[in-house]
Amino acid sequence: MMNFEQMEYIINVANEMSISKAAVKLFISNSGMSQSITQLENELGIKIFNRSKQGVTPTFEGKIVISKAITLLNTIKELNKEIFEYKNNNQAHLKILTAPAFTFILQETMVKFNSENKDITFELIEQNPTEIIQNFNKENYDFALIPSSLEELKKEKNIRFEHIHTGHICIAVGKNSPFYHHDYVTLSALKDSKLVMYNSSDYKKVLKLTKPNLNQVLVRSNSSSLLFKLVKESQAILFLHDFAIKNSSMVLNGDIKIIPLKEEKHFPVDFWLIYLETKNFTKVAKEFIDDFLDNFKKSI
């Protein structure tokens, strides 16, 4: 039976009209190619080539075999291309870079998405917005989620961005906090409050106005569970964005309350989906982003 290598051999010999030239082109010895073609001729019971001092030419039967070989090779190439595109479009791993504000909604989306797509795996990296901008081009991320100004994003090369939401900075407090029953708080009222903070958060404008000293910061961590436990059980406050945990059980059951800043109009924050100009979304990435945006809309 004719194999893949033999198909390549007879097609190239027919094109070059020479076994030696075809052998050089395919990096095989003359004798090796000649023996393989002779073996194929014996198996098929026909002569594929007439060999003479003037060169090598296909026989009538050989032209039929060569034509079929060309068709088969083209079919195999198209199949390999389709398989490659399928694997690329159905990539089973998503690498996502995000600011902490999106983590809760992303995790919820991942759990639901994975339950419906068992073969999908995720890599979720949290960083502050400055680090995201700096690192996004360096790694092979599928996309990133970030709070940023339009002006900052326009400075970056090779990045496309889609606006998701304009939100505000709030505080999270537990029942032990003196602010728990407030409808809003002022920055001046928070001046002497104990804080817990995300390592990867970036609330420079707010912190500049509240001017907390080091003794007021109980802990800095990227462990959400630790930070929310401290908020729940102490008087500490946590700065976060308005939508970050709005639909979480700890907020819905009243263990933690999200309170807006009275000066929220001074702290609007634009949130963006960013991705590389040079990297198209895979089918899986598109489906996940659609699910995430649906969940996001429900949380705001």
Automatic annotation (TrEMBL):
Q: Which residues form the HTH lysR-type domain?
A: 2-59
> Is-annotated flag, keyword Cytoplasm?
no
Q: Mind telling me which Pfam families this protein's record contains?
A: HTH_1, LysR_substrate
Membrane-spanning segments = none
- Locate the coiled-coil region(s) and give their ranges: 69-96
PROSITE patterns according to UniProt: HTH_LYSR (PS50931)
Q: Name one GO molecular function term.
A: DNA binding
Q: Supply the alphabetized keyword list.
A: Coiled coil, DNA-binding, Transcription, Transcription regulation
According to its UniProt record, which protein family does this protein belong to? Belongs to the LysR transcriptional regulatory family.
Name of the protein described by the UniProt record: DNA-binding transcriptional LysR family regulator
Q: Which species is this UniProt entry from?
A: Neobacillus ginsengisoli
